[in-house]
């Protein structure tokens, strides 16, 4: 009479196994990732801050820091 409990336990084990296998399959070392640059230009950062400053100047009321 415990047949539903056996099926439930087996399905939970199968779900656990599938989850573990899917997580482990994602753990692959990738060799095609480019190396990090040692020095980069900060022009993008300065342009972004200038853009945000232009937008914030027109905001009413001014944000309080």
Structure description:
The protein has two helices and no strands. The chain has 65 residues and is mostly helical. The longest helix is centred in the first third of the chain and has 23 residues, at 3-25. The mean pLDDT is 79.
Return the average pLDDT rounded to an integer.
79
Number of strands: 0
Element-by-element helix/strand order: HH
Q: Indicate the overall shape.
A: elongated
The low-pLDDT segments are none
In terms of structural class, how would the helical and strand content be classed? Answer: mainly alpha
Note the gap between the termini: 68 Å
Percent range for β-strand residues: under 5%
Please, how many helices?
2
Q: Supply Rg.
A: 27 Å
Characterize this entry briefly.
The chain has 65 residues and is mainly alpha-helical. The protein is built from two helices and no strands.
Question: Would you spell out the secondary-structure blueprint of this structure?
Answer:
Layout: H1 3-25, H2 43-57
């Amino acid at each position: 009479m415990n047949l539903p409990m056996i099926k439930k336990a087996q399905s939970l084990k199968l779900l656990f196994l599938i989850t573990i296998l899917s997580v482990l399959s994602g753990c692959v070392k990738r060799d095609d990732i480019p190396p990090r640059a040692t020095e980069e230009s900060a022009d993008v950062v300065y342009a972004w801050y200038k853009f945000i400053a232009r937008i914030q100047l027109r905001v009413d009321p001014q944000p309080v820091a």
